[in-house]
Every structure is written in structure tokens, then in C-alpha cells.
Amino acid sequence: MPLLAVSGLTVSYGAIRAVRGIDIAMETGEVVALLGANGAGKSTTLKAIVGLVPASGEISFAGSSLRGLPTERIVVRGITMVPEGRRVFPSLTVLENLTLGASAAADQKALPRNRAEVFELFPILAERRHQPAGTLSGGQQQQLAIARALMSEPRLILLDEPSLGLAPQIVDGIFELILRLKQRGQTILLVEQNVAAALDIADRAYVMANGVITMSGAAEALRASPQVAHAYLGGELAPEPAP
Known about the structure:
26% strand, 10 helices
């Protein structure tokens, strides 16, 4: 049984159908990339999974339906999203941001242990734990956004454009962190404009265009595909705008 199974997912904004009956499945421990051009429906798909936008179709997680559940209950079930643009709480310290991220954890007694593990993964955050998040660099804020998601002990993390707006050398560090999470067994659904880097890390990938899945398969096979190479590997994609 897949950890995440999405079947016939459809999302509309008024008369515009942003996502058109797509199917996605993921196993525990996989990193799956969701790729596509500007406006393909990638970020909307992530938002639908966590209940941030109304959707039709079926979404099941660990064998249970998420249909109709509010976002906070979906998070408690074990899915956390790191949104595009990081969206940390700028006036709160690093430590306070992390504590807020732990509010959905099933075992609140695990907070000190989870915080210690996060600081081991992100040593710069340990150094700056008492610093307001708004004073961190863009790369450090992205680390904090991922660390905050980890504090709830999620079974699945949805990462939306983690490299967006970051300098190339910082992007390399973010992908190294994602790779470390993969090596720890973390399940990740990744939307990313840097297609080559995403395919280097992912086990499998889906390609979206105009709200539908047009290709899917092993990341290595998609990287070798002439269609993918022609459409995406000649340069980075433009970021997908918010609906």
C-alpha cells in the first residue's frame, strides 16, 4: 500500500481547472519530484494534498482518506508542507519558530530530542537560536523552514520550490540537506524549478503540463528522456506563480 495515493485530483479556480484529474503514488522513504513549466499545477497539487485549496478526487495517506479534513488535522496525521518563499515568522527567534513547528507533533515530550536532532542537521540554526528569523539570510531562512517542518516528526514532507530566489552556492547547500534527509529515510514530495538538481536527488518523478501528468518514471530514465532534456534541462524553469 502506498504511503500517499492521489487519484483523480482536480482543482479549479473559478472557471480555470488548474489540476485535471491527476494520479500520484509514493512509497515510504521515496523522494519524488513533481516537475513542469510555469503554471503547470505543481504547487496547487501540494496545496490540495494538505487541504489548503478545495479539491475533488481522492487523497489517501497511510491507508486513510484525507477527504474533507482541515489542514491542521492533515498535519497531525503526518504531512507537513514547506511553502514556497519560506514564510518563517520574522519577529520570532529561530527557537520560537521551531517550537511552533512542534505544535502538531504527536509526542510533545519528544520536543527536546527533536530540537537536538534539528540542530545537529542545521548547525547554523543552533548558533543563531536566539536570533530573530527575519535577520537570517535567505538560505538560513530556508533551512529554518525545513527544520520547522521536521519538528512535527512528519512521515511526509512537501517541499515547494526550496531553491527559489537563492544564490547558486546556497542552492547547492539546500540540495545537500535534502539529500541528507533522504539518507535518513525521510519521504519527500519535491516541487523544484531546478530540474537537473531535482532529478539528481529524486527516486522517481512526475512531469506536469497544463494541469495533467504527461510523463512519469524513474528519475534516471526521465533525465535521459529527449523530451525532458529538450524542455527542461537546457536551463532552470521560471517559478510557478501563486494562484
